[in-house]
Amino acid sequence: MKRIVVLISGSGSNLQAIIDATESNQIPGQVVAVISNKADAYGLTRAKQHNIAHQVIDHKAFPDRESFDAKLQEVIDAFNPDVVVLAGFMRILTQQFVEHFTGKLINIHPSLLPKFKGLDTHQRALDAKESYHGASVHFVTPELDGGPVIVQGPVAILAEDNVDSLKAKVHKIEHQIYPYAVKLICEDKITMTAEGVHYQQQQLPETGLVHEV
Ligand code: GRF
Question: Euclidean distance between the first and final Cα of the chain, in Å?
Answer without folding.
Answer: 31
